[in-house]
Specification:
This protein is α+β, with helices and mostly antiparallel strands. The chain has one domain: 2-Layer Sandwich (S16 Ribosomal Protein, Chain: A). A 6-stranded mixed beta sheet has the order 5-1-2-3-4-6. A hairpin with a 2-residue loop joins strand 1 and strand 2. The chain is globular. The termini are far apart. The mean pLDDT is 86.
Length: 118
């Protein structure tokens, strides 16, 4: 069984929120899962993320792969840095994960702001 950490979509129509889940890679996106690892709420501004770090580390240590989207979210909140430090045997006691993800500025909005200021 190839385990993977990915997002499971939940919520109402046009009001999604996601759960980080560990599952068999052959299961459907919203299908059966093994364990819930955390939550991601992109609709809230700023977007909120909450994770159970111990569970995530357990699955990573046991060879679970990570989807591309989850990988980018882990990078934004600082989990990959903490994981690599932990793997190398470093001290992670002072490292904190971010619980919010700031919204990126859209390219069109950035160009408009540049043109108005110039």
């Amino acid at each position: 069984m190839a385990a993977i950490i990915r997002l499971r979509r939940m919520g109402a129509k046009k009001r999604p929120f996601y759960r980080f889940v560990a599952t068999d890679s052959r299961n459907a996106r919203d299908g059966r899962f093994i364990e819930v690892l955390g939550f991601y709420h992109p609709i809230e501004k700023p977007a909120k993320v909450s994770l159970n770090e111990d569970k995530v580390y357990y699955w990573l240590e046991n060879g679970a792969e990570v989807s591309d989207t989850v990988s980018s979210l882990f990078k934004e909140i600082g989990l990959w840095d903490k994981w690599s430090t932990r793997k190398a045997g470093g001290d992670i006691s002072g490292m904190e994960l971010k619980s919010v993800i700031t919204e990126r500025i859209k390219k069109k909005k950035a160009k408009k702001a540049e043109q108005q200021s110039a």
